[in-house]
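idk why but the lab printer keeps eating my pages so im just putting this in chat instead. protein + guanosine-5'-monophosphate:
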Amino acid sequence: MSGAVLILSGPSGAGKSTIISKSEDRIGEFYFSISTTTREPRDGEIDGVDYHFVSKDEFERGIERGDFLEYAEVYGNYYGTSIKPVESALAEGKLVIFDIDVQGHRLIRERIESVTSIFITPPTLSELKRRLYSRSTDSKESIERRLESAKMEIKAIGEFDFVIINSDIDISVEHFVTIANSARLKFSKHDLEKLILHWENGD
Ligand code: 5GP
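predcted complex ->
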C-alpha cells in the first residue's frame, strides 16, 4: 500500500510543532515534509531541518522548474512544498505530515486523493496573541500580521476533517495520535482497486 497524507494547518503559535514532537514515538514511521521558505530563520532554526531557507530568486526558479507540489505567499514570504521527497516517502508507504497554511491544504486536496487534515488552534484569539508575544521570536509587526492572518484562516476551519483546540497539550497529543494512526487506514481509490484484485485472486 502507498503511504498516507496528513495535513496540519492553523496559526503559527497554535502548538503544531510541539504536538508533532511529543507524538513522534507513537505514530509509526513518518516523514515530515520540510518546506522551503524565503523568510529569515528564527533563532535556533536550522536550515534543512526546520525549513530549507532560500532567497526569493531561488524560490522563483523553483516555481519555474515545477519543483513545488504547492506554494503560497504567507505573511509576505513564499512557502512551498517540494514534490520529490513527498513522492518518495509516499512510495515507501510512509505517513507524510505537512505543516502548511489553509491555501496549501486546498491545493494538496485538489492534487492528492485520500488526504486527512487537522486544523489546530489555541482556544481564543487572545490566547494566540499571548502565546505569540510570550515566545518573542518575532517582531511586533510580524506578530500583528500573524494575528490578522489567523482571523482569516479560522474562517476555513470547516474545510478540515478534524479540529484540535489546543488548550491542554497532553489531550491535544492524544487526539493527534488517534487521528495520525487513523490517517494510515484511509485508502485511495487506486489502493482499493489493488486491494480488491488481491482479495479476489490472493491465496
Ligand atoms: P512560520 O513562519 O510560522 O514557520 O509559518 C508561517 C505559516 O506558513 C504557517 O501557517 C505554516 O503552516 C505555513 N507554511 C509553512 N510551510 C508551508 C508550505 O510549504 N506551504 C504553505 N502553503 N504554507 C506553509
